[in-house]
Every structure is written in structure tokens, then in C-alpha cells.
Specification:
211 residues; disordered N terminus; two-stranded antiparallel ribbon; 6% strand; globular; 2 domains; mainly alpha
């Protein structure tokens, strides 16, 4: 056998190609930009205040926030054909984090107005659509899990403290026992707001706002 045939030559590894990942990043940024610009242009047809050209500026624009709040406080603001409610719903459903953050800014006002008008029995399909969108988003995010927190039982000793009950055979384990407390129970999907669900749906929207 010849030397040339017995010698094994390793092929050099192919060069790393980042073109695909770079293309995906550019595409995602472009889609995000398009969503933001569409939302800004749509809002400009609803409020009379000058709208900033970027979503980051819009998030901090106090005159626009005041204008939106004023429109929400009108007597017919929660109706199903209300343009601002439709904008809030569509903007949150865009799944763009910055746009969702913009909608969340008005959740306390929407929740307060909605609940205060319930006894008046006036149509509030617009408000309900926004609240249901928030509720559905949180339901999906939790994936059927409750929000819990571990609370230590201080009646048991730990490396940081001694129990006032003293050390016994049952608690002399140098660790603090944990109790699981439920902060927010599991969520069931809801497509409509009924009187029995109203408090829960509004509560979840407020939980999303404060988180």
C-alpha cells in the first residue's frame, strides 16, 4: 500500500456561517418596527395630541397618556365600537412587549371605570375585550400553573435562628420547613365576562399590571 493511500488527511471544519441568524435577527427587528409604527399611526387617528415617532418616546409621553386617559373617561368609552378600545385590544394582541407595556399602563384606569359602570348596566364590550385579552395572555403564560411562594416556618430552627420551642427530635434538622402559599390560583380559559367571573378577570388583569 502506498504512503499516499495510508495517510489520513482530516478535512478542515466548514467555516461558521452566521448569515441565517443575522437574517432572522434583521427580520424580527423589521417585524417589530412595523408593528410599532402601525400602532403609532393608528393611535394618531384617535387622539389629537402629537404622537412621537418611536415607541420608546411614546411610553414616556405624558401629553399622549393624558389624552388617552381623557378619552377613556368619556361616558361611552367602553362600548364595543369604541375606536380607542379597539386600538388597545389590537395593540396588546400584537405580542410586541413594548406595545403591551403601553397598554398595561392604562389597566388600573380601565378596571376602575369598568367596575364603576357595572351597576349602570351600560354596554362595555370594548372594555371587556381588552380585559379578556389580558386575561387570556396571563392564562397562556401560566400554562395551568398557580402562582405560589414558599414561606418558611420559623417555628423550626435553621442555620440562621433557633426555635423558641427549642430543639427536638422532630425539628432538629438545621433546616427551615417551607409552607407553600398560593398567591394566585390556576386560571380557566374564559371567552366572555359573566358576573361570576368578572372579579377574577379584572383581578388577573391587575396582577399582570403589577407584575
Amino acid at each position: 500500500m502506498s504512503e499516499s493511500s495510508s495517510t489520513h488527511h482530516d478535512s478542515p471544519p466548514p467555516p461558521t456561517n452566521n448569515a441565517d441568524s443575522e437574517t432572522n435577527t434583521v427580520t424580527n427587528d423589521s417585524e417589530s418596527n412595523t408593528k410599532c409604527q402601525t400602532a403609532i399611526q393608528s393611535l394618531a387617528t384617535i387622539v389629537t395630541t402629537n404622537i412621537p415617532s418611536t415607541i420608546s418616546a411614546l411610553l414616556d409621553d405624558e401629553p399622549v397618556s393624558t389624552a388617552i386617559s381623557s378619552l377613556l373617561q368619556r361616558p361611552d368609552s367602553g362600548a364595543g365600537d369604541n375606536n380607542l378600545c379597539r386600538w388597545l385590544y389590537d395593540t396588546f394582541q400584537s405580542s410586541e412587549p413594548s406595545l403591551q407595556l403601553l397598554v398595561l399602563r392604562f389597566v388600573p384606569l380601565i378596571a376602575g371605570l369598568y367596575l364603576s359602570r357595572v351597576p349602570l348596566r351600560q354596554p362595555q364590550a370594548g372594555f371587556e375585550a381588552v380585559l379578556l385579552a389580558l386575561y387570556a395572555h396571563e392564562t397562556t403564560s401560566r400554562a395551568g400553573q398557580a402562582i405560589t411562594v414558599n414561606i418558611p416556618d420559623l417555628s423550626h430552627p435553621s442555620i440562621y435562628h433557633e426555635s423558641t420551642k427549642g430543639l427536638t427530635k422532630n425539628n432538629n434538622n438545621n433546616s427551615t420547613c417551607l409552607n407553600i402559599a398560593v398567591l394566585s390560583s390556576t386560571l380557566d380559559p374564559h371567552g366572555t365576562v359573566r358576573s361570576t367571573r368578572r372579579a377574577r378577570i379584572v383581578g388577573v388583569a391587575l396582577e399582570l399590571y403589577y407584575n
